[in-house]
Write a structure and sequence with these properties.
single chain, 130 residues, mainly alpha, 5% strand
Length: 130
């Protein structure tokens, strides 16, 4: 959890404030970082508050974040036009969402027990200081 807080703080302080309506590296980086944060936080939220869905937490985090940006981009397009810019913003966010959900699921949260037709499997996380 500490790693997630540090990552969220870094991304908020250095990238999110650079959002603008132009197509430039700062704008797309801020959408990318926003996707990482949104999907990561949603993935964490599913694991923490809805444990019965924890097996699909990464998918829920990714798809929810992606749907949010698509709806937001559609609203922006309806209000301001400039579909190319909105599409690039959404694509940057969706790529960030995929990475955020994957990293949060695989490396930040504790693995879950998975039941498949082949049997049951569980991941193990060990930590120690040397």
């Amino acid at each position: 959890m500490k790693k997630l807080k540090i990552l969220a703080s870094f991304l908020l302080l250095f990238n999110i404030s650079n959002a603008s309506s132009d197509i430039n590296a700062n704008s797309e980086l801020s959408h990318f970082a926003g996707g990482i944060m949104t999907a990561g936080i949603l993935t964490y939220g599913v694991d923490k508050f809805y444990p019965k869905y924890s097996e699909n937490r990464a998918e829920i985090g990714f798809w929810t974040s992606s749907i949010i940006i698509v709806v937001e981009s559609a609203i922006e397009y309806a209000n301001d036009g400039n579909g190319t810019n909105q599409a690039i913003d959404a694509a940057s966010h969706i790529i960030g969402s995929a990475i955020g959900a994957y990293v949060t699921n695989k490396y930040i949260l504790t693995p879950v027990v998975r039941k498949t037709a082949d049997g049951t499997s569980v991941g193990l996380q060990a930590q120690g200081t040397f």
